[in-house]
């Protein structure tokens, strides 16, 4: 293989690293146990390591696992063989928007969750699945997702873009646990019913935060809560990192202040994000 043909294996390594999220996987398994019946047709969008497709097959499903990254798909195929379900899982290397199923699915798994539904394709992919993959009475996992924001102080991520006297444009970054200091309570900015289509939806809201501690507001931190089915709920503690979204400039705040923030973005389109502090 020539150097030009070699690609760094970031996608497959990331997919495999998610196998450490045991709580997330166990919650999905509980949900699949409830919704997948023997010989149900299941479509798994963005299968990654194949873990959710394999679990669905173990529950009796006939599964189509879609993955755009060829190396991740090969890994998932090997995992299916190791777990004796390769005869129940069909692997498709294609973007979900280009795949045309031969039949409508009883269950669609679409787990592309991210802290604000900003970067990953959770919302557009779920909408596409409702319109093109799922039976009218079928089930999609997850069913709903809510997004929350709060202003925070994060000296580490704010200084990341300043080094040796050089300045770089600030971008949203994942934050380690305990790295952000909350300056106000969380507020819900959006709620998505994923059992319905959310085509061309725009999140647009003005939030008024009451500051609970003196500090410097460097930006917002985003997180989510997603209901798989019934009482089975995913949250940040199940393996996701918070997303730190920096302001254009830091804001000094005092306890009792009201900080108004206007935010808008199109879910799944990173470059549409706009934040203004009032």
Structure, described:
Strands 6, 9, 10, 11, 13, 14 and 15 form a seven-stranded antiparallel β-sheet that branches. A five-stranded parallel β-sheet has the order 3-2-1-4-5, with helices on both faces. It has a three-stranded antiparallel β-sheet with strand order 12-16-17, with no helix packed on it. The chain contains six helices and 17 strands. The relative contact order is 0.15. A hairpin with a 2-residue loop joins strand 16 and strand 17. It has about 280 residues and is of the alpha+beta class.
Structural class: alpha+beta
Tell the overall outline.
Answer: elongated
β-strand amount:
35-45%
Radius of gyration, rounded? Answer: 20 Å
Number of individual domains: 2
Q: How many beta-strand segments?
A: 17
Helix content: 10-25%
Helices and strands, in N-to-C order? Answer: HHEHEHEEHEEHEEEEEEEEEEE
Q: What's the pLDDT, averaged over the residues? A: 94
Weakly predicted, low-confidence segments: none
Number of helices: 6
Q: What key phrases describe this protein's structure?
A:
278 residues; alpha+beta; Rossmann fold; Hnrnp arginine n-methyltransferase1; 2 domains; 7-stranded antiparallel β-sheet; 5-stranded parallel β-sheet; 17 strands; 21% helix; elongated
